[in-house]
Amino acid sequence: MDGVPTASLLLRALTGDRPDRPPVWFMRQAGRSLPEYRDLRVGTRMLDACLTPDLAAEITLQPVRRHGVDAGIFFSDIVVPLRLAGIDVEIEPGRGPVFANPVRTASDVARITAVDPGEVAAAAEPIRAAVRAVVSELGDTPLIGFAGAPFTLAAYLVEGGPSKEHLRARAMMHADPAAWHALAGWLAQVSAAFLQAQTDAGASAVQLFDSWAGSLSVADYRAFVAPHSQAALAAVTVPRIHFGVGTAHLLPDMRLGTTADAVGVDWRTPLDEAAAALGPDVTVQGNIDPALLRAPWEVLAAHVDDVLRRGRAARAHILNLGHGVPPDTDPTVLTRIVEHVHATAS
Q1: Which of 32, 132, 268, 312 is catalytic?
Q2: Per-residue pLDDT tens for 17-65?
Q3: Catalytic-role residue among 21, 37, 128, 156
Q4: Which end of the chain has less neighbouring CB within 10 Å, N or C?
């Protein structure tokens, strides 16, 4: 693709070419913790902001300007492709995505999967416009597109909103496997269409977020989830990152065969242990503990250095948090981490 910054540290790390220092970016860097983001969002609902191209583009660019990170992450939400598919969903402040009509029976699954996933691509012009605007501003800095993984999207749909244990979603897998696979397969196509809209417009890497996969057993993950996540990621040809929370027991499977070029690791698993579980032919991403962003700098810096040291066990390392930036984070701390990493030779 013309204009893709192929020499960037991020893309080198994703293809196994270890740079002199690891690239650094932060999950949820676009938004929440930045005062300029909060100012920009006044009076605009989350999903409306995601679907307003100039707004989404500006929010994506804000942390790149402020922190000097090595990649932008497209500002959106994992339920945006569901909204594009015509599903009635809103993001309630302090709670998260809430669906007017949960998907809990075979007839519910039939209703929702009757929507052609191609409608997501057709309705995604605001996404493509925003990505094009961001890429034109970023220059040599790559943009990462993203989407929610089928299981996490299904968990929201089946529960009707956020859940701690995802009991209904996990129950559907066994109570009605045919309905589950129909739903998860449809969601894989929806996520794929959303990723493709971003890469077609210039995103040079993607990340698939499976926020709730950690609630699954290895057996259930392999049987009911991994094939659908693999299908979503396999739809794009740019480098691919796969991330989950609480997934230490799933790390070898999160490679999705050879589909994922990098696997994100949360703060619970040291990166050298993760690298040993994943094998020598995959990049690791992570895994600063977000809680330590509030620690004294000396404590945080020592933690960052430890993460950097452990990341050397993998073929390459992308420094990131072990989850997203907490909304009450002091942005100057993130900038200081970037400056610290940029001054550190791998």
Answers
A1: 32
A2: 999 999 999 999 998 899 999 999 999 999 999 999 999 999 999 999 9
A3: 156
A4: N
Q: What are phi and psi of 282, to 5 degrees?
A: -145, 145
Q: Is the CB of residue 198 less than 8 Å from the CB of residue 217? A: no
Helices 297-311 & 331-342, crossing angle to 10 degrees?
Answer: 50
From the list 12, 21, 28, 310, the catalytic residue is 28
Tell me which residue of 292, 227, 273 sits closest to 253, measured CA to CA.
227
Confirm whether 309 is a catalytic residue: no
Task: Considering the candidates 70, 77, 210, 266, report the single residue annotated as catalytic.
Answer: 77
CATH class of this structure's domain 9-342:
alpha beta
Please say if 28 is a catalytic residue. Answer: yes
Q: Region 115-131: what's the mean pLDDT?
A: 96
The reply to whether 77 belongs to the active site is yes
Q: Does 37 participate in catalysis according to the annotation?
A: no
Give the three-class secondary structure for 321.
strand
Query: What is the reported pLDDT for 346?
Result: 44
The pLDDT tens digits for 178-208 are 999 999 999 999 999 999 999 999 999 999 9
Any catalytic annotation for residue 18? no
Q: What are the residue ranges spanned by the domains of the chain?
A: 9-342
**Per 3-state DSSP, what percentage of the chain is helix, strand, and coil (rounded to 5)?**
50, 10, 35
